[in-house]
Every structure is written in C-alpha cells, then in structure tokens.
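Notebook entry, structure prediction.
Reason for the run: the old model in the group folder had no record of what sequence produced it. Starting over properly, with the input documented here first.
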Amino acid sequence: MTAMANSLLDRLERQDRAFARKVCDGLREALDAAGLRLPSLGVERAATGAHLVQLGGVAPGLASELATLVWTGAPYVRAVRGGEFGGGH
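New structure, fully documented this time:
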C-alpha cells in the first residue's frame, strides 16, 4: 500500500510542478508580448510542497509598467470571471 501511496503522491507532485511551469511559461510569453521581462520569474517548491510561480523582485519602473498592463486588462478579466462569461462574484 505504501508503494501505491508514494506513487500517487509522486504523480500528483509532478502534475503540480508541470502545471506551475506551464503557467509560468504562459506568463513569460504574455509579458514578452507586452515588452516586459521579469528577471526572476520562475517556479519554486514551497515548504508546504506546493509549486509556486515566483515573480521575484523588480525595479520600480518595471513594476509600474506591469501595473499599467494589469489595469489595462482588468475590465476584460472581470468580465470573463464574473460577468456574462463566468459564474464568479
């Protein structure tokens, strides 16, 4: 039973890591398309075992550009998440 449990846990851990990397790569591509680069963007394993997308530290100018990019897309994100396209808040 332990071998099966470890196998399942290993598989879940690999899936979690693969998903985090896929999201990280997608974020990198989106930022590249906008002309922005987060130098420390990557995936790290947290103490809890979860894989997290780490944005890292950025210069204030880049943070300002990132904020502008997010503000520009915010109405679309709200529409998709909670408007006619989603069942959110």
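Summary: The longest helix spans residues 2-33.
The old model has been moved to the deprecated folder.
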